[in-house]
Amino acid sequence: MVDKQLFKRKEFKYIETKNIVAANYYPVTTAIAVRDTNSTHKNQRQVTILNDRSQGGTAGLRSNASIELMMQRRHKTWDTYGLIEPLNDLDQWGRGVQTPASYYMLVHDTKTNNAKAGQAQQRSVQRKLEQPLLFFYSHSFEKIPTFNATSVPVVNFAQAKSPEIPAQSSNNNSQLAANSTNATFAASEANWEFKSSPTLKATVFGVLPNEILVRVINLEDRFDGSSRIQHIDLNTFAKEFYLEANQHLDQNIT
Amino acid sequence: MFNIRYYKGATGHFFDGIYELATEEISKSYNYGVINLKRMQRRQNSMSGEFILIFEQEKKNETVRASARISINQFDDFVKYDVELNAVPINNERVGKDVIVDWYMLDGFNTSRKLYVDANGL
To answer: pTM score, two decimals?
Structure first.
């Protein structure tokens, strides 16, 4: 973290300006923090705000006790720089865009001897927030009893057996795939195995009622397999998937 | 104390826009809507709790609307703020609005004009 001071520059003399908000705004990549210097307080608290995107921010402009981050800007006029257009992002209906954002506030006391309370948890929280999506998959595709609402099976990831969980999605394609015998589920997407190749796994996402997105993963590529190249015959895949989702139909479909 | 506020864009010597952040000369921020206490919700579980603040204000045929879900639990070291702004109404403004999220520390917190950010440049 780099310390900054309001109305001051380390590298050159600060020149007074009427535009004091902009003069004291700094880029905040992931975190902004302030420390309490009030000598009458027994603790020396640090307040850290983590954001989920890079923003501009400052602290202390309001009575030396505030932190602020720029969340959204919308204007009607042009600032005389660049193209002649206002900063006015619109959605597909011509309305101003909606802006969702998440912030995480951490407070700790830098004076305490308590190791946990006295250390900034910023890095550990960042690691937790920015952790990539984790994959758990099955080595043995042995089936375990079907999930029911009264007894939730405990999944032992050391043994890595996938529980069969009913689909959460109302999407027709996901639901059909979920009800098939080979389908294993995570959240609202269907993980489906090819009959033609045991190491290929397809994840089916319902996009629209009549549209699906299929991601094919060769588990051998990712983990412990040989370097065999798996060829996918899209016609075979489409047929397999269709039959899987429509098991009551004629198997002789071409 | 958490709040959503905004700056009014400047005209005259500076112009607020894509490339320049220029607020009006008094550099004062205003409340972005008012918390609707009737629509505020809270939920308390054994190990977690959250409450939802709805910021609303209707002014000259325009409505400011925003929400903040503030949640805390026993397992994480942070308080989470999920903030969502609807379209920022600017028809009644001369230039526009620069909307900020703002935390104001009470009980005599004093930053001594110092802050820490994790961007090396500038």
So the answer is: 0.67
